[in-house]
Amino acid sequence: MITLTLAELATITGGELHGDSSVVVSAVAPMDKAQEGDVTFLSNPKYSKHLAACKATVIMVRESERELCPSNALVVADPYVAFARVTQALDTTPSPATGIAPSAVIADDAKLGDNVSIGANAVIESGVELGNNVVIGAGCFIGKHAKIGHNTKLWANVTIYHNVVLGDDCLVQSSTVIGADGFGYANEKGEWIKIPQLGSVRVGNRVEIGACTTIDRGALEDTIIEDNVIIDNQMQIAHNVHIGYGTAMAGGTIVAGSTSIGKYCIIGGASVLNGHIEIADGVTITGMGMVMRSIPEKGVYSSGIPLQTNKEWRKTATRVHRIDEMNKRLKAVEKQLERKKDA
């Protein structure tokens, strides 16, 4: 168990402590469940009415809520960011591997940096380069001439194909595949002819990729994930996609080939993006968005029909099927009105 004094919390968060700096905390908890020894936070002012009943040892708040705290208060610029910093400091997640397992298969010419850990039954092929402090979990496969930067961590059963490049300080969750063939085929009289995918995947620094996600290699040029991108679980990123700096993509999203997504975009879960389109910087697409055309301007975009009762949905579906008929009738009425105006 990790323990921190409130003085240490203030240093970690850059906050201003109001209370006993020597008191110790060992866990983070929600405000309504926090007990003595816990640190909690208030990020949404509408919940400030619950502060008086909070039993946490210390509460991270903005200055405007400090007087409402019944216990020690840590005033911070952004309580949610402070929460993230504190959870990192209290994190007890074990490493995917420690040391080099005897059952790991490592090519003689692979280059391993300092303090590399490789788990049981992992395979490191010829020409691979692993930076300092890299951790490769059990059962991972690192293909020929792949390069993995300093401090990058792969959980169990990740597959990195040949020539793929991962930057520094990346985190890849279990069963993700990076560098599989893109979906490229030509058709000759009904017969599919495979197009070998000759590009690769280049992943920048400080990128996090969730479990069971697939990022395909490029057909001729590379698929590119820029720095500071976060990608959730169970996603499909097709060949030659380009994802810009600082973009966040939620689970179940599918991005078709050769699509370019700008910087600082937010893509909601279960969205589908068509191929060969461009998404501008700063675009937010809400969950289950279906993006068929390029989005040239920053903003929030949505599509789809929100959940309704089955009875309401049946009515809506019936009306949708009659749109063409209704449109023709509307145009006929408009023509009649125009004739009356001219008369």
Automatic annotation (TrEMBL):
Stretches that traverse the bilayer: none
Entry-linked Pfam families: Hexapep, LpxD
Pathway field: Bacterial outer membrane biogenesis; LPS lipid A biosynthesis
Self-association state and partner proteins as the record states: Homotrimer.
EC assignment: 2.3.1.191
Name used for this protein in its record: UDP-3-O-acylglucosamine N-acyltransferase
A Gene Ontology term for the protein's cellular component: membrane
Described function: Catalyzes the N-acylation of UDP-3-O-acylglucosamine using 3-hydroxyacyl-ACP as the acyl donor. Is involved in the biosynthesis of lipid A, a phosphorylated glycolipid that anchors the lipopolysaccharide to the outer membrane of the cell.
InterPro entries noted in UniProt: Hexapep, LpxD, Trimer_LpxA-like_sf, UDP_GlcNAc_AcTrfase_non-rep
Entry keywords, A to Z: Acyltransferase, Lipid A biosynthesis, Lipid biosynthesis, Lipid metabolism, Repeat, Transferase
Family named by the database record: Belongs to the transferase hexapeptide repeat family. LpxD subfamily.
Taxonomy of the source species: Bacteria, Pseudomonadati, Pseudomonadota, Gammaproteobacteria, Vibrionales
Catalytic activity: a UDP-3-O-[(3R)-3-hydroxyacyl]-alpha-D-glucosamine + a (3R)-hydroxyacyl-[ACP] = a UDP-2-N,3-O-bis[(3R)-3-hydroxyacyl]-alpha-D-glucosamine + holo-[ACP] + H(+)
GO-annotated biological processes: lipid A biosynthetic process
Organism: Vibrio eleionomae
